[in-house]
Specification:
By secondary structure, the protein is mostly helical. The protein folds into two domains: 100 residues, RNA polymerase sigma factor, region 2, helix turn helix motif (Rna Polymerase Sigma Factor, Chain: A); 98 residues, Winged helix-like DNA-binding domain superfamily/Winged helix DNA-binding domain (Arc Repressor Mutant, subunit A, Orthogonal Bundle). 67% of the residues lie in helices and 0% in strands. The chain has ten helices and no strands. α2 runs antiparallel to α3 and α3 packs across α4. The longest helix has 23 residues. It starts with a helix and ends with a helix. 37% of the residues are buried.
Length: 206
């Protein structure tokens, strides 16, 4: 969404235009649900509902551009998810691939074949096998489409930490793909080159 279009919709939504708010909702909701289903399992739908209630309550106070809007919503969603998991007194739920949203993925700033990888149900199931920190960074960067700075803001981490965690998460995904025999080769080691990651994703999603 162009910044000018976002600004127009935000202004209208803050003035009470329900159709404008619906447009902003539809822009973020598919990626929000992918993130929540992958890291929150069965809690995802309730957390998404609580997130949007908070968004509605704080809508008139929001100031920022489209990237800031997405970052704000994912920050709220992550806080609501943590609260819900604490209430449930259990660890993050495994991904339920039957419930992952099947809508067309929203725009992303990721280039190449990795883009396609992160819009599929199978890829979300693989991401769900990553350590929690890696899964969150990979989801926010490549499913939600947030840049490094906004991802760091959502997670409360430094941009450099986000970059390292993202790299490790992508590398681990390549290893998982290789272990499944996607490339017809042995699983990649810790020093697997970037080319191996691309080949692995091509084999599964190309």
């Amino acid at each position: 969404m162009e910044d000018s279009e976002f600004a127009r919709l935000l202004h209208a939504a803050q003035a009470g235009d329900e159709a404008a708010f619906a447009e902003l909702f539809r822009w973020v909701q598919p990626r929000l649900l992918r993130y929540l289903h992958t890291v929150g399992g069965r809690l995802a739908d309730d957390v998404a509902a609580e997130t949007w209630l908070s968004v509605v309550r704080g809508l008139r106070r929001f100031r920022g551009d489209g990237a800031g809007w997405q970052s704000w919503i994912f920050t709220i969603a992550r806080a609501r998810l943590v609260d819900a998991q604490r209430r449930a007194d259990r660890s993050p739920q495994p991904v339920d691939t039957e419930r992952v949203l099947r809508d067309v993925p929203g725009p992303s700033d990721v280039s190449g074949t990795v883009d396609e990888m992160f819009s599929t149900e199978a890829a979300l199931a693989l991401i769900g096998q990553l350590p929690r920190q890696q899964a969150e960074v990979v989801l926010l960067r490549h499913v939600a489409g947030l840049d490094v700075a906004h991802t760091a803001r959502v997670l409360g981490r430094r941009p450099g930490t986000v970059r390292v965690t993202d790299h490790r998460g992508l590398r681990r995904l390549a290893e998982l793909l290789a272990e499944r025999g996607a490339t017809g080769e042995d699983a990649a080691g810790d020093e697997a080159p970037d080319e191996t990651r691309c080949n692995a994703s091509d084999a599964v999603f190309g």
